[in-house]
Amino acid sequence: MKDIKKIKVLLLTTCSIFAATAFSGAVQANKITGITQARNKALKEVKNATILDVDKDYDDGVLVYDVDLLKGKKKYNIVYRASDGKKIEYGWELKGYYSKNGKTISKSSCQKLALNKVKNATVMSIVNKTDDGMQVYKVKLKKGDKRYTLEYHASTGKLMEYEWEVVSSAIASSSNNNSYIGENKAKSIALDRVPGASVIKVEFDTDDGRDVYEVELIDSSFEYELKIDATTGQIVEFDQDDLD
């Protein structure tokens, strides 16, 4: 019986080592090591597109490749994590679309459109605003580890922009650093700056080498974006846009 147990343990250990080796091999196989590889990966995803730009950059201390493409009337943006080739951002924008502003569809109708596009998501906010002379609805949603932003023409209901980004685990782990003020404090600082607004998004990021919390808020008239130093709590950037 002891010999049988030893054999079982040996088999389980061997299987574990094999699985770990196979996983490591798969990660290495998908690793992106250069701009050409990132370019080819994007072209496989958006077939027959034209590459506009490929950048090698760092996002929250993580090496990424940022690819812009054009196909027909759509401009695409895809961001890949270099270490394993995982797509962490994806989006497209409809170029050259224009329609006169007419009767505006309701927010509830726009919400239905967004939830049909991203099923089982949670709507974080819907904002009506003017973009390049057109009335649009900007809808923000969350589903699993992804945050989505969709932009619809407010009269025709046409989807003109679509994008999502993965909420990085690297961001979450970095923001837990004891020397940082934390998300709740960042929210409080933002709300002190814009009393009566509602917080719709808080993210940890690195901006020009500085660790910051990016906070988005809205009220009845404006949409706000603040960058707050993650260590000192100082507001280092403040943007305010009209909702309409």
Q: What does this protein look like?
A:
By secondary structure, this protein is α+β, with helices and mostly antiparallel strands. It has 3 domains: 30-96, Nuclear Transport Factor 2, Chain: A (Roll); 97-167, Nuclear Transport Factor 2, Chain: A (Roll); 169-242, Nuclear Transport Factor 2, Chain: A (Roll). It contains 5 helices and 12 strands. An 8-stranded antiparallel beta sheet has the order 1-2-3-4-8-7-6-5, covered by helices on one side. A 4-stranded antiparallel beta sheet has the order 9-10-11-12. A hairpin with a 2-residue loop joins strand 9 (198-207) and strand 10. The protein is globular and about 65 Å long.
Element-level helix/strand string? HHEEEEHEEEEHHEEEE
Give the CA-CA distance, first to last residue: 77 Å
Quickly name the level 1 CATH class of the largest domain.
Answer: Alpha Beta
User: Got a strand count?
Assistant: 12
Give the averaged pLDDT, no decimals. Answer: 85
Trace the largest sheet across and list its strands: 1-2-3-4-8-7-6-5
β-sheet strand percentage = 35-45%
How many domains, in number, for the residues? 3
SS content category: alpha+beta
Which value, in Å, is the CA radius of gyration? 22 Å
Low-confidence stretches are: 19-27, 169-173
Second rung of CATH, namely the architecture of the largest domain: Roll
Multimerization state: single chain
Shape: globular
Largest sheet: 8 strands, antiparallel
User: Residue share in helices?
Assistant: 25-40%
Count of alpha and pi helical runs = 5
CATH fold-level assignment of the largest domain: Nuclear Transport Factor 2, Chain: A
